[in-house]
Amino acid sequence: MSDPRLTELARLLPGLKLSTDPGDLEHHGRDWTRRWTPAPIAIAYPADTTEVQGIVRWANDHHVAIVPSGGRTGLSGGAVAAAGELVVSLDRMNKVLDFNAVDRTLTVQPGIALEAVHNAAREHGLIYPVDFAARGSCQIGGNIATNAGGIRVIRYGNTRQWIAGLKVVTGSGELLDLNKGLVKNASGYDLRHLMIGSEGTLGIVVEATLALTSPPPASQVMLLAVPAMDALMKVFAEAQHRLRLEAFEFFTDRALEHVTAHGAQAPFAEAYPFYVVAEFDAADEKAEAAALAFFEQCMEEGWVVDGVISSSDAQAAALWRLREGITESLAAYKPYKNDISVRISRVPAFMAEMQALLAEGYPDFDVVWFGHIGDGNLHINVLKPEGLDYPAFVAQCEQVTALLVDTLARHEGSISAEHGIGLVKKPWLSSVRSPAEIALMAGIKKVLDPNGILNPGKLL
């Protein structure tokens, strides 16, 4: 290590794995955003909590900023290291530590992949219900840091609902053991929930106790073709009335075109403006009859013009691929992304305004949008045309985002539903949080991270 600070870190923690390999620096210095050039000083791979504490104390002594790093599947620049920071990769802290059958909890290290958590829970006949397409690469620590939601929020809620306890190393190197898996704990401020969604700016998660639940009844998946935007919420209302929903997602014809070009099978002979993927309980004949009645009602009303219900696990997976494959199918275009939310009751009015705004703001761009309509969360992807300079593309998109923020403010929505603020959305934080809230957030960070070493420049 040519940098004397790194030499000192290696001396203090002789078992710590450190890398300055250019490939590692580039790989770990960025997330799924590609707007910033990675430039970390090094990558540290701690193997346990003691090493994480040692890194944080060293960083304070040497005034080195730290960027915690999980699976780096974030879309807001929250895991970017572009200014000589030390990236603390939690890849080696990836184990299941404990399962408690009575409490129905699973205690894990932060670097474990979400899919591995699903598999571990399933081995005990239970489920960890938070789920989304990046399950194979995202990590639990990152999910907690952004309070990730995903496709089953409509039934199970966000990550926050499933965190029974946390161990966190603060910006001063102190280890906090928060809530300890208790169901009830009315003993003052619940700092566990302060850490959830804090984007690594208040502490580094080193252990999480996850609440598990029983598997849902057998389910089926339905794909519906919807002729107009104003019919989407009518279909959703009818589904809520008649079905026990696991998930209710929508996407546009442009999204379907990209996914099928990426290898998915087209579901219908004709193309339609909008599509809905709904998963619902189908444990018995009564539930299946309710699903058929729902479909027939939507067809009679003209809210749906075509549809298919899965008859096997393979067909259900194929229908879900049409929704879950969207992000991957767009990755090569370096899309500019908005991740927004409004109250469910305001979705129809907001979507009407949003569609008009996008048509006017992006007349020559391919705009692909989809979302978790059952929880008011919409994802907008603007694809960069060939030949357009990337900085110019981003600048044009940000002009439209500023108008979108104004529209969100009128509908009391949020510029970030589940991806965090990071670097990308920091200019618009004040559209969601009042000056008093932002001042309090800065004060909280000062207490937990007195020298400002944890993920500086992100969020605040």
Main beta-sheet strand count, sense and barrel state: 7 strands, antiparallel
Taking all Cα atoms into account, the compactness measure Rg is 23 Å
Shape descriptor? globular
CATH class designation of the largest domain: Alpha Beta
Percentage of residues in helical conformation:
25-40%
Please give the CATH architecture of the largest domain.
2-Layer Sandwich
CATH topology of the largest domain: Uridine Diphospho-n-acetylenolpyruvylglucosamine Reductase, domain 3
Helical segment count: 15
Q: Which secondary-structure class do the elements indicate? A: alpha+beta
Q: What's the number of structural domains? A: 4
Work out the number of β strands.
16
Can you describe this structure in just a few lines?
The chain has 15 helices and 16 strands.
Summary keywords:
460 residues; alpha+beta; Uridine Diphospho-n-acetylenolpyruvylglucosamine Reductase, domain 2; Alpha-Beta Plaits; 4 domains; five-stranded antiparallel β-sheet; globular; flavoprotein; FAD-binding oxidoreductase; FAD binding; FAD-linked_Oxase-like_C; oxidoreductase activity
